[in-house]
Amino acid sequence: MIVSIIAALLVIAISYAVLRTIVISIFGGNKHSSWLRKQLPLWETKEIINAEQSGAIRQLYRMDDERQKSKTDAVKIILIIGAIFLGAGVIFLVAANWRKIPAHIRTINLLLMTIATLFAGYYFSYEKQGHPLLGKSLLFLASVFWGSSVILICQIYNIPSSDNWLIVLLWALPVLPVAYFFNNRYVFLLASVLLIIWNFLYSHSANAANYYYPVLVFCLILPMAFKLGAWANINILGLLAASFSCCFVEYHWQYSWLAIFISSGLLGYYLIKKEEKYFSAASLSFIAWQIVCFNATAVKRANFYFLIPLAALFFFTYRDKLKKSLCINIFSAILWFHLVVYPYSKVFNDKYNGITALVIQLSIGVILYLIGMSHSESKKYFAPLYKSIGFATVAGCAYLLSFKKMLIGNAGFEHKFFFIICLALIAAAVLLLILLLCTKPPQTKFFKMELICLSAVFSGSLFILFFPLLASINTVIMNTIIFLLAVISIFYGMGIRSAEVFNSGIVIFVLLVITRYVDIFWELTEKSWFFIAAGLFMLIGGAYLEKQRKKVIEKWSAE
Amino acid sequence: MSRKNIIFGIAGLWLVLALGLIGYKQRILATGIKVVLETVPVDPRDFLRGDYVILRYKISSLSGIPGKSNFKRGDRVYVKLEPAGEYREAESALSAAESAPWRAVAMKAKNEIERGDVVIKGKIRRSGVVKYGIESYFVPEGKGREIEKSMAGRSKVAVEVIVDKHGNGIINKLFIDGRAVQL
Asked: Which residues on chain A place their C-beta less than 8 Å from a C-beta of chain B?
């Protein structure tokens, strides 16, 4: 057991190192400053800059601080890992329940050790100069020892595991003053994680939604996170976990209101802090609310009231130009539409099967793309986003519809309610396109490319709707549409010089080729030859595509 | 407030909480009534506190409590207990009063408890299970398996629980065939 815990801690440490490397490689880290650090003495010797200017540059980019920081970072990690190991060791010693020492002696010893470590942490942090990191680690260790003391007391009195939430709460809350008054981020992280665990243990034990957790986070933990300047995100994740966990429990009205309560709280924080992450989290929590309410009223009735909060979320998204949140809210709106339509499968005795849902989704994708195209100049900020989501939706649905087995398996498409819904959506998309053509006549060749794609998608959708039994023809049509989307994306990307569009075209093309290769040759050939041929084909094809892609992108950069 | 005062305040808070928890439990042990409940043990492992034995009682099931009730899931209930006959082995060190197993005679709401009633507080969980907070008995690491082996083939396993006047219960001892388990 202990070995596995040590292994887990090592995995955490390694993950941290890997994550740090990835973050540095993505965001650049201090690569530029290390280059500058090497260059500055050179410039000084060549008298390009003088010592004073060199010093000013160092100060501007805080290069001396950075070097200091990287050293303290390593020490900090060693000290914290040491504290974690020591704390874990004491917890396992407690867990071993060694009865040779009487319970009261064990309790007194552990409590004294906890208090002594707390004072030692204070002493090294503030009284003795030069050991602030050791002090912080000892304060963290004292917080872990405090948890061990609570566990020991609960063990002595046989408090059942169903009340583990009480232990975790008694551990987390009393260590918060240490985090707050001594600016200890590690203790705050410990308390935050413990409170997330407490939320789940309490909900499970009490069979009820835990409203205390969001109240605690909104009123106490998040303000503390702002004061300490750390770990707000982990608490937001905790709130989201609380929201989404409501989707997986046996329904009770309390659970549905918990998700919207969390969403409202996060929205409140967004209005105060004006940071998009709060709004995105509120939008995600709203999705959880939709799912919980759907589970509660499944197949009974469609819920149109959700349009009100959804409209409010879109209002804020547009007002404050929140791109990430718009993605989430578009997904939320699509989900709402499916959840509204689904209950009618029982009312009209119509199947809401794979093809129906996919054609509906395909039409929604087209509408989203058209919304992107029709965005006015003032709202141009969001146009590419709508287009990207619409394009990805259409490509994804067309890809799924390109499998013959899928089309054969779900071919019982009757001309009932969902057929009308599909037609209505396609009609709406066509109307939108006509409106667009009236306001913006197709002048550029890129616009014409988009029109070709849209026409192909319209025709394919209508054909599949009216002739669902012709699976072979539908497969050919959908494959042709994907091929067309890939080719046009490549040319369109080259035309507008967008690496994203160009790359997405290549990705779709490669995906199509691989899928069809697997479809055709998997059953026909010996598996070894199948993999060898596929591997060679991909290596050669990939190298060729990479070469072409680089050429095009380099050409754009040169121009 | 200076940092020194704060550190003293935190240390004081921790001590008060720890001693408060101990005091609360000790008060029940010192002033409560000893009742013996027959159990059926299982052996799992708690993720926080080492080995322990899960205990199921006859009164853990709603069907094991006589009388009709209107209680539903999530309700707090008070189960009235009374001694039921002799439960003693010749070598047992227990007194007759202590060793008699107790049985449930009624399930009550808080306002229905009468003076002199010995009750244990529980909560109704899913599928008619009542939890009293006395379902875990902690043993030293590795001892759980040993105890389980010694239980094999024995018919009478019981637990001495101490309950206060409010119905809060704490496990005091575990008995196998009338003998207290020595840990």
From this structure: 91, 94-99, 107, 111, 114-115, 118-119, 122, 126, 146, 149-151, 153-164, 167, 170, 174, 177-178, 181-182, 206-208
Q: In A440-526, which ranges are continuous DSSP H helix?
A: 445-466, 471-496, 499-524
Distance of CA A555 to the CA centre of its chain: 34
Distance CA B79, CA B124 (A): 11
ipTM confidence score: 0.82
In this prediction the pTM is 0.77
10-residue stretch averages of pLDDT, chain A, 559 residues long: 51 56 48 74 82 80 61 69 80 71 85 93 86 87 92 87 88 95 92 94 85 95 92 92 85 78 94 91 92 73 81 90 90 90 78 80 91 74 87 90 77 71 89 86 78 87 83 86 88 79 85 82 69 76 75 70
Task: Work out the end-to-end distance of chain A between its first and last CA atoms, rounded to an integer number of angstroms.
Answer: 62
**Are the Cβ atoms of A161 and B133 closer than 8 angstroms?**
no
Q: What is the residue extent of each domain of chain A?
A: 1-205, 208-342
CB-count exposure of residue A253 (10 Å: 0-12, 13-18, 19+): exposed
Nearest to A372 by CA among A326, A313, A426, A333: A326
Whether residues B14 and A97 touch (CB distance < 8 A) is answered with no
Of B3, B50, B171, the CB nearest to A158: B171
